[in-house]
Specification:
- Chain A: InterPro entries: CbtB_put.
- Chain A: This is Probable cobalt transporter subunit (CbtB).
- Chain A: Keywords: Membrane, Transmembrane, Transmembrane helix.
- Chain A: It holds the Pfam family CbtB.
- The structure holds two protein chains of two kinds.
- Chain A has helices at 17-38, 50-54, 56-61.
- Chain A is an all-alpha fold.
- By secondary structure, chain B is an all-alpha fold.
- Chain B has two domains: 7-132 and 200-247, no CATH class; 133-196.
- Chain B is 77% helix and 0% strand.
- In chain B, helix 1 (7-50) runs antiparallel to helix 6 (203-247) and helix 4 runs antiparallel to helix 5.
- Classes of the chains: A mainly alpha, B mainly alpha.
- At the A-B interface, helix 1, helix 2 and helix 3 of A face helix 1, helix 2, helix 3, helix 4 and helix 6 of B.
- The structure holds zinc ion.
- Residues 56, 60, 66-67 of chain A line the site of zinc ion.
Chain lengths: 67, 248
């Protein structure tokens, strides 16, 4: 049985320009996804108001101003 | 086998934890929140009829789809996004978080987000059900909401900086809380007050909706933090096992 202390903390990549650029790209994509759920009115989803209406209740319950 | 530290697998853990958190939050939202939204929409339609407007018969998506697929899609996509952002923040900030425990670091970051992104905005701009809110002010309300959310994160950061000026535990806690509250107080005073609740909107329904919304968001960030910590721990355990196997 390995003890809890014997598990070493997870190795973390060193901060490099490459990591920062990758992280920035990931965050931009994920913020766009959050925008799609929370605020988009068709400009991003290219589906008219369909996605906006589909996720309407989630928006209210996630605390985002809706209408 | 060399164990290269990678952003990819930390990100994957965050995304997985996020979808799980979103699905659980959405399930809670369905049971606790949907009855309130239905009741609020009924009031909205009564109001529209009373003003001689046509009811919302030309709906693009049926209520049934909004309540089931739509709700779960919204919460799980939102959870996915938040999970990935949490994992990215974890990767970039892990070295600066002064704890030897990965779980404490992960849960601490999720707790900070819950406070800054959920609790601080909730108390200034509590969420509203349909039938509450003037469509003409939606842009101003959206900007104010984003502003309070960003200031909530700034307040957390101020609290951490203030805590780090002290060495004794009780002084750290006091300084941290003070730094946080000062920024929150300034934000609350500077940002505009918004109250668009109609006089005849039932108070109990508003309360129940807001509690359901707070519960949904709290579950999302709590499950996200715990599941992310759990997945990171699994990776650390398997890395340790590999290291031991490589030695023998
Ligand atoms: Zn709405």
């Amino acid at each position: 049985m390995p003890k809890a202390q014997s598990v070493r903390p997870l190795a973390i990549p060193a901060i490099s320009t490459r990591l920062l650029l990758t992280a920035a790209g990931v965050v931009i994509v994920l913020l766009a996804l959050a925008y799609l759920v929370a605020f988009d009115q068709g400009a991003l989803s290219r589906s008219g108001m369909y996605m906006h209406e589909l996720m309407h209740d989630g928006r209210h319950l996630l605390g985002v101003p809706c209408h | 086998m060399p164990l290269t530290p990678s952003f990819g697998r930390i990100l994957l853990a965050g995304l997985l934890a996020g979808v799980l958190a979103g699905l659980l939050a959405g399930t809670f939202a369905y049971f606790a929140g949907e009855p309130r939204i239905d009741a609020a929409i009924a009031i909205e339609q009564q109001n529209a009829l009373a003003h001689g407007e046509a009811g919302a018969d030309d709906e693009l998506v049926s209520r049934d789809t909004q309540k089931h697929v739509g709700l779960l899609l919204a919460t799980s996509l939102y959870g996915l996004a938040m999970g990935g952002i949490l994992a990215t923040a974890y990767t970039l900030l892990r070295r600066r978080l002064r704890t030897g425990s990965d779980s404490r670091a992960a849960i601490g970051l999720a707790g900070a987000a819950l406070t800054g992104v959920i609790l601080v905005p909730f108390l200034k701009y509590p969420p509203n059900p349909p039938a509450v809110g003037d469509p003409a002010t939606i842009d101003q309300r959206t900007i104010s909401y984003l502003a309070v959310l960003i200031l909530g994160l700034v307040a957390i950061w101020a609290g951490v900086l203030a805590a780090r000026t002290q060495t004794q535990e009780w002084r750290r806690a006091t300084a941290g809380l003070a730094g946080f509250l000062i920024v929150v107080a300034i934000a609350y005073v500077l940002l505009p007050t918004i109250n668009e609740v109609p006089d005849n909107f039932p108070a109990v329904l508003l309360w129940k909706f807001r509690i359901a919304s707070l519960g949904t968001q709290t579950i999302l960030w709590t499950v996200l933090g715990l599941a992310f910590a759990g997945l990171l721990n699994r990776q650390a355990v398997s890395d340790t096992a590999q290291r031991i196997a490589a030695k023998s």
